[in-house]
Amino acid sequence: MRTFFLTLILTCLATLPAFAGNIEVSVVEEENESSMELQNRAMNEAFAEAVHKEALRLLPPLGEKRSALLREELKEKAGYYVLGYDKVQTEPSEDGLTMRMNVKINRQALRDGLKAMGVFSTARERLSTDVRVKGLNEEDRMKLKDLMLLTGIDPSSDVDSPAIMISKDEKEMFDAQMRIPGRVWRGRGKDLGVVWNDLWKRYFTRQMAQAPKTGMATLRIAGWFTPDGVREFDRILRKWDGALSDVQLLELDMQASGVSGIWSAHILNRELLTGRLEAFLPDRGLSYSIDEKADENDS
To answer: What are phi and psi for residue 202, nearest 5 degrees?
Structure first.
């Protein structure tokens, strides 16, 4: 019974969503806007702010401009990542409304969305791409510049793949073609952003499917007096997104000398991880060890 109870706890911990914390937004009332419409708009802004806030926790620093572009991109999709909300407070202001709430985010879905956008893999190093355009006006080119910054694309004529060609015809339709070895993807539509994002989603989704599972490690932390300490630290560890990802609490090892927690995770930044562990653990009488697994392709 005890083993079953611990297994149930670990399963629940592994699927916990994330609360983005206290979100506060202020919106200005528009002309002829009803109070209900104003509240709905404020709520949508709160959802967008919560999703953006959680996305920044999952990513290394992006820079002000790219972060702002990401917020605009996520705003249209925020409802997809919101699981629920509570503690809603509204306060009228002279020109509109201030709303405060707690928002619950589907963290795994958001992580998958950021990966499909390419933001995860290009957050630290931009992807060199042969980008060619034809028939785009100045407004289109400025839009494309923002799209490249958001996706993390560094235009370069010195690479063969990936290569993307975008043109605009007399009907104001955008045609795009992406080439990689063994694949050609095409897109067409009135909205440059939609066409661009669709092609890159295919690219990054394929890259993720083909990527070997590297960087897996087993992290063991010892020295707790009770299992509650392990479970509390599990919640903390899952917030260290710049240091590691895919955190799973595998086992509670209870010995007469104390309780140890054993996790599996992908290490994203070992220096950052060890720095945080060494700042957090010694004062609490805890110690750690990291066992990194060799890549599957090396065996």
So the answer is: -60, -45
Question: What is the percent of the chain where pLDDT is above 90?
Answer: 38
Q: 90 near 98, Cβ under 8 Å?
A: yes
- As a residue count, the chain comes to 299
Angle between helices 64-75 and 138-151 (to 10 degrees): 100
Amino acid of residue 119: V
Q: Which strands form 244-255's sheet, in the order they lie side by side?
A: 244-255, 258-267, 216-224, 287-292
Return d(Cα 176, Cα 130) in angstroms, integer.
Answer: 13
Residue 44 CA to residue 28 CA, distance in Å, equals: 14
* Residue whose tokens read 């709430």: 101
| DSSP at 279 | H
Which of 151, 130, 136 shows the shortest CA–CA distance to 197?
151
DSSP secondary structure code for residue 294 in this structure: P
C-alpha 270, offset from chain centre: 19
**What is the C-alpha to C-alpha distance for residues 246 and 23, in angstroms, rounded to an integer?**
26
User: Alpha-carbon distance 168 to 172, whole Å?
Assistant: 6
Query: What integer pLDDT is reported at residue 86 of this predicted model?
Result: 83
The rounded Cα 98 to chain-centroid distance in angstroms is 27
3-class DSSP state for residue 287? strand
What confidence tens digit (pLDDT) does each residue in 107-164 have? 888 888 998 899 988 988 899 999 999 999 999 999 999 999 999 999 998 898 899 9
pLDDT tens-digit map of 77-96: 888 898 888 878 888 888 88
Q: Tens digits of per-residue pLDDT, 194-218? A: 999 999 999 998 887 765 555 678 9
- Cα 269–chain centre separation: 16
At 199 the pLDDT is 94
